[in-house]
Design brief:
Shape: globular
Number of domains: 3
Number of strands: 21
Largest sheet: 8 strands, mixed
CATH class of the largest domain: Alpha Beta
Strand content: 25-35%
CATH superfamily of the largest domain: Mur-like, catalytic domain
Structural class: alpha/beta
Strand order of the largest sheet: 9-6-10-11-12-13-14-15
Radius of gyration: 22 Å
CATH architecture of the largest domain: 3-Layer(aba) Sandwich
Low-confidence stretches: none
Oligomer: single chain
Length: 459
C-alpha cells in the first residue's frame, strides 16, 4: 500500500509526531529515538507516556499549532487526527512528507526478520502481551509494541536487540494493510468500526488483504472456532495453522480445560492429535484459553523454547484495563475492563459470573456509530449481568448527530438504568454494593475513573 521505506529516512533525520502521547505512537517514538532519529511531537494533554519520552530527549508540545512544525524531515500522524489539523495542514503547505502512523510502523518493520502481527476484532492487546512474555522468557530479547500497559516491560514498549517484533495490527481504516509480517495471528473477525466499514463482508475482505501480506516463508495462525476467520483464509495462498477449543480438525486444540475458583484456565495442548504441552494461566476466562493457544501455535512455528514460553504465559497477569483489579468498596471487588464490543462484553461478564458474585456493570458506550449499529447486540450482551448502569456515550473522534443516546440502550435491558452524572453513579454504588457483589467498570472511554474514585473513597 505504501512506497515509503525506512531507507528514505536517514539516521539523524527529524520526525515530528502529531498525537505522540497515544499508546501506539509513543512506542514508535521510542523506537525512533533508539534508532538515532530526532523526535518531536504534540498532544492535547500531559501524560506519563509523554513524560517518559521527554526524558529520552523528545521535544513535545502541549496543544497542536502550526508553529510547532519546525522544519522536520517527516511528519507522522494518527488515524484520529482531523484532515484540517493545523500541524498537518502546515506540514503539507511546506511540502514536508506526511505519513500515517501505520505506514511508519510498516517501514520500521523492514529492520526486523520476524515481525509478528496480532490482528482481530478482539484480543489483540492480550495476545500481543502473552506472546511478548513468552518470547521474553524464552530469551529471544524481542522489541515489543503493545496497545496497553504491560507490567513486566514497564509500559507499552520494549526495545530489544534481536529480530523479533511482536505488535498489534489494527484493522481500523485498514491501517494493517501497511504491514508485511513474517507471521500473522488473527484471533476473530466480527462487525466493528462501522463508521468506516460497510459491513461484515467488507471487513472479511479487508482481513483477506491483510492475510495475503504475510510472508510466503511465514504463516497465518487463526482461530477456526470463528466462522468469519475461516472465511478470511479460505483462498489465501499462505501456510495456515488453525487453533481451537471446539473444532476437532484444528492443528492445535485445547483439551481437559479446568478452571480455578478465580476462573483461570489450566489445559493440555494437542498438536495434530498428540500431546504437546500443558498450560496454566493466571488470567481468567475461556477467551484467554484461546488467546494462549494462539501463542503456543506461534511459539511452535518459530521453534522457540516451548517450556520457557509456557512459563512466560503463566507469568502473564493481564494488562492495564483488561479485567484489571482496581480495589474494593464495602467488601465488593472492583474490576476495570476495556471491553467495548458486544462479544468482548459478554466474555468479560461471563468470566465474572464464574466468580460466584452478583455482577454489577457500569458501561460507557464508545462512539455513536458503534452504539447505533450494534445496539441490539449490546443489549443482549449486557443483559447477562445482574445490574447495569449506562453512562453517556463516549464520542471519541465523532460528533453528536442526535440519532442515538444511551437511553436507547438502557431501555432495552431489564436490569439497566441510565445515569448521566458519574458522581451520582459513584454515590449510588457506594451506598448499595456489598461483599456479595462484583463491580465492573467497562468501556474504552474514561469510565475507569468511577472505579478508581470508589476505591479511593474506601481507603
Amino acid at each position: 500500500m505504501s512506497e515509503f521505506s525506512i531507507s528514505d529516512l536517514p539516521k539523524g533525520a527529524k520526525v515530528h509526531m502529531i498525537g505522540i502521547g497515544g499508546i501506539s505512537m509513543s512506542g514508535i517514538a521510542e523506537m525512533l529515538i533508539y534508532l538515532g532519529y530526532c523526535v518531536s511531537g504534540s498532544d492535547m494533554g500531559e501524560s506519563d507516556l509523554i513524560d517518559e519520552l521527554r526524558t529520552r530527549g523528545a521535544e513535545i508540545y502541549i496543544g497542536q499549532r502550526a508553529e510547532n512544525i519546525k522544519s522536520p524531515d517527516l511528519v507522522c500522524y494518527t488515524a484520529a487526527i482531523a484532515k484540517n489539523n493545523p500541524e498537518l495542514t502546515a506540514a503539507r503547505s511546506l511540502g514536508i512528507k506526511t505519513i500515517e502512523r501505520a505506514e511508519l510502523l510498516g517501514a520500521l518493520m523492514e529492520l526486523y526478520k520476524y515481525p509478528i502481527a496480532v490482528a482481530g476484532t478482539h484480543g489483540k492487546t492480550t495476545v500481543t502481551s502473552m506472546l511478548s512474555l513468552a518470547l521474553l522468557k524464552a530469551n529471544t530479547d524481542p522489541t515489543i509494541l503493545v496497545g496497553g500497559q504491560l507490567t513486566q516491560i514497564g509500559g507499552n514498549f520494549r526495545i530489544g536487540k534481536t529480530d523479533y517484533l511482536p505488535f498489534e495490527a489494527c484493522e481500523y481504516v485498514e491501517s494493517f494493510l501497511h504491514f508485511k509480517p513474517f507471521l500473522s495471528i488473527i484471533t476473530n473477525v466480527e462487525e466493528d468500526h462501522l463508521d468506516y466499514f460497510s459491513g461484515i463482508n467488507h471487513i472479511i475482505s479487508s482481513f483477506q488483504k491483510f492475510a495475503s501480506l504475510t510472508s510466503p516463508n511465514g504463516c497465518i495462525i487463526v482461530c477456526s472456532d470463528d466462522k468469519n476467520t475461516n472465511a478470511v483464509v479460505q483462498n489465501v495462498e499462505r501456510k495456515v495453522i488453525k487453533y481451537a477449543i471446539n473444532d476437532e480438525s484444528a492443528d492445535f486444540i485445547a483439551k481437559n480445560i479446568v478452571y480455578s475458583e478465580s476462573g483461570c484456565g489450566k489445559f493440555d495442548v494437542y498438536k495434530n492429535g498428540n500431546l504437546l504441552t500443558s498450560v496454566q494461566l493466571s488470567v481468567p476466562g475461556t477467551h484467554n484459553v484461546l488467546n494462549a493457544l494462539s501463542v503456543i501455535a506461534a511459539v511452535d512455528f518459530l521453534e522457540v523454547d516451548m517450556e520457557l514460553a509456557v512459563q512466560g504465559l503463566l507469568e502473564f497477569g493481564g494488562t492495564k484495563r483488561r479485567f484489571e483489579h482496581i480495589g474494593e468498596i464495602n467488601g465488593c471487588e472492583i474490576i476495570d475492563d476495556y471491553a467495548h464490543h458486544p462479544t468482548e462484553i459478554e466474555a468479560t461478564i461471563n468470566t465474572a459470573k464464574k466468580m460466584g458474585k452478583n455482577v454489577w456493570v457500569v458501561f460507557q458506550p464508545h462512539t455513536y456509530s458503534r452504539t447505533i449499529t450494534l445496539l441490539d447486540k449490546f443489549a443482549k450482551a449486557l443483559s447477562v449481568a445482574d445490574k447495569v448502569m449506562i453512562c453517556d456515550i463516549y464520542p471519541a473522534r465523532e460528533k453528536y448527530d442526535g440519532k442515538i443516546h444511551s437511553c436507547d440502550l438502557a431501555i432495552k435491558i431489564d436490569s439497566a438504568v441510565y445515569m448521566s452524572d458519574n458522581n451520582a453513579i459513584e454515590r449510588y454504588l457506594a451506598d448499595n454494593l456489598t461483599e456479595k457483589d462484583l463491580l465492573i467498570t467497562m468501556g474504552a472511554g474514561d469510565v475507569y475513573k468511577i472505579g478508581y474514585n470508589l476505591s479511593k473513597k474506601a481507603e
